[in-house]
Amino acid sequence: MENSRRKFLTTASLSSIGLVAAAASIGTFIPENLKAKGLSPALAKKTIAKVQEPLEDFVYDIENGSTGYKSEGGSAKEATVEEFPVSQSIAGVSMYLQPGAFREMHWHSIAAEWAYILDGQVRTTVIIPDGTTSTDDFEKGDIWYFPKGHGHMLQCLGDKPCHFLLGFDNGHFSEFGTFSITDWVSHISPDIMARNTGLPASLFANLPKKELYIGVGKIAVEPRPKNINPAIPYSNSSHKFRMAKDGVYQQFKGGSVKLVSSLEFPIQQTITSMLMEIEPGAMRELHWHPNADEWQYVMEGKGEVSIFGSHGRVKTMPYSKGMVAFIKQGYGHYIENTGTETLKLIVLFNSPIYQELSLNDWMTSNPPQLIADHFGMTLEQANSLINHKNGIY
Questions:
Q1: Does residue 321 contact residue 341 with C-beta atoms inside 8 Å?
Q2: Catalytic residue, candidates 78, 83, 104, 106
Q3: What is the pTM of this model?
């Protein structure tokens, strides 16, 4: 089990921790590491004071925190830095589409798009810069990934509504500020559009001067129809991965995880995604990620997240279904299931490769006497750490 678990782990340098730890002294004393950086006493004190600021809130209710967008065809609620200031590197959107509805053709200039299907079915189309195209059908448990700038469209498939979670590798991204085809075309001169398409100018003159965003049309059915130009080649790059079925699985005493990184899903070059389940009364052990921020969405259940931000700064916040949490890169943290049902999470990391360092592994990778001296314990107690379970227990 441990050998399997360590496949998720990548050894990383801990030198960055030293800078924070070395700034522990406050008052008139200036740590040597800040002196070495050439900082003036005033600036050094300011730097230390900033480190001492209380930890900010890191949980947000994406489903109930804002009104978002709502129309006949569906709805969208987002968590960007505007709503969730701590989440500087990752943004999220919870989107519903009704049968026959579609999120119009668009692209994102500053972020790649990742998605997980929570319920129903979705059809996507995407055009790739090499001139190829792709159409894929997704169901519950599947994920997609569209690199930054790739034009795409999302469509509810079949006669039942669908619900999916979108993740973006930039917290400043806004779903309501993307580049949409109707917004562009409706603000271009009808004569120019006629020259560009060969269609009559009157067609474009009558378009509403606004973005469609979510439109309603005929219900999409299988099999998918051919494209207008069937000669455009189909892409060899897969934008689809069956996460719930094919994610790298690991079972623990108190839960399980399924991991999808760029090693399993090569196009997913800016994000690693994970499904995590924590059973009632269990906890995800104390650990940190040296290479990535962490963004969580609660699918089911309720729990508490606790983070450690150095200098005695620890903060614990509760969350439940429909809420998100954000943990900064390098911050120690753990998750506890405080409810009576399984806590189910979707977790995103803003790195193509997963890295984790656990407190238990760190302690047991040192001589017992050293650990005993750190915490005033006996050698017997230090040696007993090897018997403790890792992961979720």
A1: no
A2: 106
A3: 0.87
63 is catalytic: no
Q: Which residue in the list 78, 83, 103, 150 is annotated as catalytic?
A: 103
Per the annotation, the verdict on 113 as an active-site residue is yes
Token digits of residue 179: 């580049």
Task: Please indicate whether residue 152 is annotated as part of the active site.
Answer: yes
Catalytic residue among 108, 150, 284, 287: 108
Backbone phi, psi, residue 118, to 5° = -85, -35
Q: Which residues contact 341 (CB under 8 A, 6 or more apart)?
A: 280, 300, 301
Q: Which residue among 123, 150, 152, 289 is the active-site one?
A: 152
Q: Is position 103 annotated as part of the catalytic site?
A: yes
Query: Is 347 buried (19+), middle (13-18) or exposed (0-12) by CB count in 10 A?
Result: buried
DSSP secondary structure letters along 265-307: STT--S-EEEEEEE-TT-EEEEEE-TT--EEEEEEESEEEEEE
User: DSSP secondary-structure letter at 43?
Assistant: H
Q: How confident is the model at residue 21 (pLDDT cuts 50, 70, 90)?
A: very low
Largest Cα–Cα distance in the chain? Answer: 86
User: For residue 368, how many C-alpha atoms fall within 13 Å in the half-sphere facing its CB?
Assistant: 10
Selected catalytic residue, list 78, 104, 175, 279: 175
Q: What is the pLDDT of residues 228-261, one digit of tens each?
A: 999 999 999 999 999 999 999 999 999 999 999 9
Domains identified in the chain and CATH numbers: 2-51 (no CATH), 66-241 (2.60.120.10), 243-387 (2.60.120.10)
Neighbours of 14 (CB within 10 A): 12
The rounded distance, in Å, linking the Cα atoms of 72 and 215 is 8
Q: Give the Cβ contact number of residue 189 at 10 Å.
A: 12
